[in-house]
Amino acid sequence: MKKKVLAVLLGGCMVAGLLAGCGGGKEASSDNSSSDDSSSGGGDYTFEVVVKSFQSTYWQAAIQGIDAAKDELGVKVNTTGPNAESDIADQVNMLNNAISQKPDGIALAANDQNAVLDSLQDALDAGIPVVCFDTGVPDAPEGSVIATIATDNEAAGAVAAENMYPVIKDAIANADGQVRIGEVNQDATSANISGRGMGFINKMKELIEADGKTVAVIGNQFYVDQVENNGDEGSADVIIEVAVPAQTTVELSATEASNIMNKDDTIAIFGSNQVTAEGVLTANQNLNVLAATPDEGIVGVGFDAGATLKAAVADGTLIGAVTQAPVDQGNLAIHALYDYCEGKEVSDIATDSYWYDASNMEEDDIAPNLYD
Amino acid sequence: MANKSVSKTAGTKKSFVDRMGGQQFIVLIIVIVMFIFFSAMSPGFRKYTTVVSILDYSYYIALMAIGVTFPLLTGGVDLSIGTGLICYSLIGGLLVRQHGMPVAVGMIVTILIGVIFGIINGCLVALMDLPPFLATLCTCMITRGFGAFVVGGYGIPWPAAGQDGGWFRSIFKIQVGGQNIPIGFLWILLLVAIMSFVLNHTKMGRYTRAIGSNKEATRLSGVNVKFYHIMAYVICGLFAGLAAIAYSAIFATVQPGSGAGFEMDAIGGAIVGGVSMSGAVGNVTGTLIGVFVICLLKTGLPFIGLTANWQQIITGFVLIVAVLIDIFKRKKESGK
């Protein structure tokens, strides 16, 4: 008898745990996905959306865009996503569940471009159109993905370099010895982050070399290996040092940032997403070296938004940051699915990324993408 | 060796105590050697600001580790402290940010929720006989989902230094003449002293060890085993709540969905410091020293230019060695 009770309790606890652990995101999203029947003409379509995670406010901004599109078009949208971007298997499960609901379309922001390939084939077999947003799936089965709506990450990284370079240009030109530019990337696996990281490195290298200086890229092997015509670390005028934390925590990002910011020859640093940019700021709490110009300290540039980052840009701790257009992306993804269902032609869209600093944060085309 | 640093512990055999003093001493030497090694290898590491950073990032791990020492001593474990920390901090921070409550109220709520989850863990383990590993794995998942659910997925920034309510950040770090003084370390030392006293000189501590040593014998000798067993988890929950405050005070934004894996730093620290996974053996001072082994590895390895993969490989090996020392000594002891 006692054993039976225990078994029931155990089972109950595991189910409860599973529901809470895996379903937390779903529950969190259910507010946003109320199946209201405010259909205003057009087809009464139901779309499933699978986002990367509910971990960052970035995705909340995307969901804002999705909700806006839902109201505009009068469609039903159900949004799910795993707790963290590293929960790849969870996301594939959610995608499979979405497919089994037989919706009129699916919008997907894939955490792993290879893990979703089988599911995309299933969607194709079931005749469900898929729009990829935020992240493309380059190897998707022919015909399964009808459109990809994503930031051009290489270009976004380049935007950071283009805006950082004018500030540090003189310091590079007048330097006695080597100078160092740091870059902290959250990982070396996702296409977004590595695209952004390489975009920054390549653009910065190009700008510096155009002014007649030499560049060597050192640090994380994944990034260094992708650099063409890499210079020699010993003789280069400018070192670009790339760091990747062992886990994607603010603390480890901060440690990697501290390491670079502690070096005497460092003139600038770039954190290529919200977590790593906050890592740079956390490191600065103790180092107190970030400044508006290389003469006064180290020039910091961030990526994405969030209350902490916005405050740092507003008070000048960071000279600026690059934001993507998550609201647009979510919105456009639903519009693309709708248009496809209505029989219209849809095509890939590369959404813009914007440079923002203390002077333009409040402007109309910037402010909506600066989520808290 | 280092017998003099050992406090007398009623209820456990002298030989245990001897050994603990030994391991603690060795680990302390290891901490010092590591610090000297990293300082010699990296000019950036031997700066005062780096020391402050290491301390900053150690507070929440140290607090979790002090707490989890109690369930470990009963022969159990608490895996919910990492995600729990984030959950408690999110809820407390939400009250401050979105409901305009004073920071002090947010802090008290944060700690209270930690205690509540400690009670839940304790009841699951002590009253309902769930294996601690399973019970706290479940609450780990619950806290992870619950935290994200309550805040609706949004990250919560507790008030920054200088903002309204930012005073709480100076609990751990104050500025004197432009220099950061890591006063949080004093609080940690104070708490270690208090919990050492609790562990070594009170009924609570003696019974915690006794449960880990032989639960049935303890029960038969008339001890209210269930109560003290629950209390071990309550203490752990309380310290997870305190760790949540430390985390919120050091880092800018608390992100829902994060926190998984923090508990491994804390449990790893306790084990490196000589707390046995099979219960009864270990103490809070050892735990604190062990935490610094973990923290030094996390900070030092990037500074000497080792990339992410190497950091994980080396940390894994250090943990294996620490556990092997424990097993080896136990075998030697029981063999003779």
Overall description:
The complex is a heterodimer of chains A (372) and B (336). By secondary structure, chain A is α/β, with parallel strands linked by helices. Helix content of chain A is 44%, strand content 17%. Chain A is built from eleven helices and 13 strands. Chain A has helices at 2-30, 57-73, 88-100, 117-125, 153-173, 191-210, 221-225, 250-261, 274-287, 307-314, 326-341, and strands spanning 46-50, 76-80, 105-108, 130-133, 145-151, 179-184, 215-219, 238-243, 266-271, 299-303, 320-323, 349-351, 354-356. Chain A has two domains: 25-150 and 326-352, Response regulator (Rossmann fold, 3-Layer(aba) Sandwich), CATH 3.40.50; 153-323, 3-Layer(aba) Sandwich (Rossmann fold), CATH 3.40.50. Chain A has a seven-stranded mixed sheet, sandwiched between helices. Chain A has a six-stranded parallel sheet with strand order 2-1-3-4-5-12, sandwiched between helices. With 336 residues, chain B is mostly helical. Chain B has a single domain, classed as ABC transporter involved in vitamin B12 uptake, BtuC, CATH 1.10.3470. In chain B, the strands form two sheets. In chain B, strands 1-4 form a two-stranded antiparallel sheet. A two-stranded antiparallel sheet of chain B has the order 2-3. In chain B, helix 2 (48-73) runs parallel beside helix 7, helix 3 runs antiparallel to helix 4 (103-127) and helix 7 packs antiparallel against helix 8. At the A-B interface, helix 1, helix 2, helix 8, helix 9 and helix 10 of A face helix 2, helix 5, helix 10 and helix 11 of B.
SS elements, strand count of chain A:
13
Q: Which strand order do you get reading across the main beta sheet of chain B?
A: 1-4
Which spans of chain B of ≥5 residues are poorly predicted at pLDDT below 50? 1-12
Low-confidence stretches of chain A: 15-41
CATH topology of chain B: ABC transporter involved in vitamin B12 uptake, BtuC
> Could you give me the name of the CATH homologous superfamily of the largest domain in chain A?
Response regulator
Q: What is the straight-line distance between the termini of chain A?
A: 53 Å
> Which percent range describes the beta-strand content of chain B?
under 5%
Number of domains of chain A: 2
Estimate the mean pLDDT confidence of chain A: 86
> How many domains make up the 3D coordinates of chain B?
1
Name the CATH class of the largest domain in chain A: Alpha Beta
Determine the strand fraction of chain A and express it as a percent band. 15-25%
The main β sheet of chain A shows up as: 7 strands, mixed
